[in-house]
Amino acid sequence: MAERSGASAEIGDAFLRRGYRLFHWWHKVRDGTLSQEQFQAAVARLRITFVAELESAANFEIEPKEKSPLAKTVYTCAKILELEVALWTFVAVTGVEPTNNPSEQALRPAVIWQYTSFGSQSKVGAEFVERLLTVNATLKAQNCSVLEFLTQSCQATRLGIDGPSLLPQPQTMMASQTLILL
């Protein structure tokens, strides 16, 4: 929005300023210089003005099916208003990040693999890669060994028993599930 012309740029600039302020506070919470309670109170005030500005922008008069920069801004603000409550989850729920950076970082190996290997040439191959990348990302997030998991999975298949789970488990349980190849 801030890169559009006219009123859209003004609306976008106002949202950017609020965003910068919000992330400034968020970083203070993370480094311990602002309490969660102070953060929540500050965000509550910011949220009121943010919602008011969204509503004001969503109510700009535009022609039906208009495609101007202002119309795009009006449509975007109306859509954001529909989801506005979800934007603030990270304020109330400890441990929820305000960005999707962890998700993007988890997807990065898959994107790099796709570019460097030219992808898969079959549906079966694509499914294999999807599953292996999911296993890799899940175990990495749990700080578990991918090689150990895959070894246990192969051994379980050979023995006709249930394989290991990707669900989070205490490390002692993973170690006790090690199968011995017969």
Explain how this protein is built.
By secondary structure, the chain is mostly helical. The protein folds into two domains: 7-92, no CATH class; 101-176, no CATH class. It is built from eight helices and no strands. The chain has helices spanning 7-31, 36-58, 69-83, 89-92, 101-117, 123-141, 146-159, 171-176. Helix 1 (7-31) runs antiparallel to helix 2 (36-58). It is extended and about 65 Å long. Residues 172-182 have low confidence and may be disordered.
Summarize the structure.
With 182 residues, the protein is mainly α. The chain is built from eight helices and no strands.
Domain count: the total is 2
Taken as a percent bin, the fraction of beta residues is under 5%
**What is the mean pLDDT?**
86
Low-confidence stretches: 172-182
Helix/strand/pairing category:
mainly alpha
Helix segment tally: 8
- Approximately how much helix is present in the residues? 55-70%
How does the overall form come out from the CA principal axes? Answer: extended
**What is the radius of gyration?**
24 Å
Q: Alpha-carbon distance between the termini?
A: 63 Å
Largest sheet: none
String of helices and strands: HHHHHHHH
Number of strands: 0
